[in-house]
Amino acid sequence: MKRLAGLFCILLSVNTLALGYEWSANAGDGSAGNPYQISTAEQLASIRSNPALLDKHFVLTNDIDMEPAVTGMVAFTTAVIAPDTSATVGGEFEGTAFSGVFDGNGYKIVNLIIDILVDSDSSNDENGYLGLFGQISLGGEIWNLDIENSLITGGRRSDWLGGLCGKNYGTICNCYATASVIGGSQSEGLGGLCGGNYGTISDCYVSGSVSGVGTADCFGGLCGENIGTIRYCYATASVTGGDYSGCLGGLCGWNYEGIILDCGATGSVTGARSLGGLCGESIGTISDCYAAGSVTGDADVGGLCGISYAIILNSYATGSVTGDDKAGGLCGWNLWGTISDCYATGSVTGRNDLGGLCGWNEGTISDCYATGDVAGGDLVGGVCGEKWYGTIRYCHAAGSVTGDDLVGGLCGQSLWGVISNCYATGAVSGNDYVGGLCGQSGQIPVTMSNCYATGSVTGDRYVGGLCGWNDGIVSYCYATGGVDGNDCVGGLCARNLGGTMSYCYASGRVSGGDNLAGLCGLNEQGTISACYATGSVSGNDYVGGLCAKNSRGTMSNCYATGSVSGGAFLGGLCGNNDRGTFGHCFWDTDTSGLGTSDGGTGLTTAQMQQGGTYVNARWDFVGETLNGGNDIWTIKEGFDYPRHVWKIVNFIAWDGVDLKDYCFFAERWGRTDCSAVNDCNWTDLDFSGSIGSNDLDIFATYWLSGK
Fold first, then answer.
1. 663 by DSSP, 3-state: which?
2. What integer is the mean pLDDT of 322-337?
């Protein structure tokens, strides 16, 4: 209040429109070797009096206090240096831009006030390009300058406001600003350092706050809009918008074909739409960046970026995210963009289209992960809430996921795209269409391959250990978590509607009401081949070790070994078969406790653990050529049931057979004691007791599989 009282007294006696100072400097001639020396507020302000000075060199020689009560000068209603002379709202800059070099020399300019009394003077209501500098042109340079405790207040329609400058086409390096930048109800382009950057900003940081009301948009903690390059910068400023504001970011509001490298932001961001902890909306490149502040808004809300149309690489976000629609721990909406080598750890809460990494994905996400818990309504996933057309690969999620419909440990819903080499480990709970990896995977040519889920899954209808509903293609996948639901529940997939599932398995227990099975609850006109289930199944009616109902579907080369219990329509393999077909499928009558099934062949445990049983049924096994050379299955006779070779040869990690697995295999080459030492950690692929050329042949068959 003391600061404002002094300001008011001065303004009563001085006409703010008659602003002008006679040029003066301590020394220097303005050249690069002998810059003008600036030591007082009057000298600094007098630069504006002569446009011919704006291409010269300047250097500060001490700290300068711009407090009006101290200097006796009026508060500025335009930029101090290189102000705009246009009265056109949103128009181009019409003043003379600064094209010289200003070296702060490590000194500070403090208590700068611009345009604080707009309500009392309507002629100032549309002033733009506000800051110490109005506009810095190409070739202009600002170095080693500190701006402290500045207050930049725009009018109702003031655009391009910054603690240091309105717009920059030049170079700003090694500067910082502690600023409060306030926009009007229709302002655009606000930043703690710079309103708009079309040049280069490097090694700078900002603290303080940036705020606007109403529909004010495109502002950030450091820069409102970036079409240039920002690198090695960070911001701790809070960013707050109005009820209809958009394109807000902790560092940059709108990255339009610009580049942001090695930057970070820790301030909170609050607004309406297109909000990000680092960047509100990006059509450029973001690389090696981080955001740690909380982000709260309505739609398109992300821990790092609200909406991305381009590239996000090697970046992460740790702040909590809250949004009603399209909210993600890293990105709210990935629209045709690429996100790679990124992660998010913050919790995500809201209503629909929520993801631990990305709320809605229509682009590519690869080599990413999310560990935060996600809770909301519909379309909720540990990595992605909803995916259209895009690709998710080499990603994983570890947080718990809670929602209503279309809920998945990795993805709530996947349509027309690819999910590959991904996994989820968190518990998943919801109502309908709930899966350990994906709530719904559908619309051919959607594919899900080389994926798995290990978390428990709980829901009402269409609940699966891997997928609640599938009408696409699922291959080389598995689920191990327990699954509980009331209607249509499966250890791997609840409902396979015209889809294809192959080379998959489930080992988790399944319990609940009706239509329960160890692998797939309902197989309706779908195809299931080379799959198996080992978990126990307990329910009411229509319960099966492999499938509950097979309605005009096809199941071949499959088996089940889990116990099965319930009411009517029970089967060791299938509870009810309605015009479907079974080809060479088996169940264990000893372990299931059932000697009946509506389809398939019942065998004893001893028979189920003999390779000849399956070879004679035309299954393709390691070591035989009669049934093909793909070597799909292997078995340790008398000890175990058939296993998929694709799963066994991933010795080191699940992410595909590569050099890591080869080294693991090579370390055991030539050993002959494998029968006594856990089959040499499964590298004895033919169970001969030794590691030799036959095992190498099998391993080579799967080389780079899943990649």
1. helix
2. 94
